[in-house]
Design brief:
InterPro entries: DUF8113 (IPR058426)
Order of helices and strands: HEEHH
Distance between the termini: 38 Å
Number of strands: 2
Protein name: DUF8113 domain-containing protein
Number of helices: 3
Helix content: 55-70%
Strand content: 5-15%
Low-confidence stretches: none
Pfam families: DUF8113
Mean pLDDT: 83
């Protein structure tokens, strides 16, 4: 299976999941080729903070397990990148 097929499968699953009746939290970050990022949030600030911490923790754990970086190293890289994005 190619990377494009994997991406298409995940995209289809994510799109289908948006139709769930019990959806309580939405965060979508789109990364395009070249410059430009889009972010969509569908939560109150407190709910978003809780969801973001959980999602960031999951991402760091999975990436650390699949790479030679620690969770702490990944978190530091994420902080640096977040500061570079300048999203408001």
């Amino acid at each position: 299976m190619s990377d494009d097929t994997d991406f298409d499968d995940v995209l289809t699953q994510a799109t289908d999941a948006l139709d769930a009746d019990d959806l309580e939290s939405v965060y979508l970050g789109l990364i395009h080729e070249g410059p430009g990022y889009e972010f969509y949030f569908g939560n109150e600030t407190d709910d978003l903070r809780t969801a973001a911490v959980t999602q960031l923790g999951m991402l760091c754990r999975v990436l650390a397990d699949q790479s030679d970086l620690t969770v702490e190293e990944l978190a530091e890289l994420a902080v640096d990148r977040a500061n570079e994005l300048g999203v408001r």
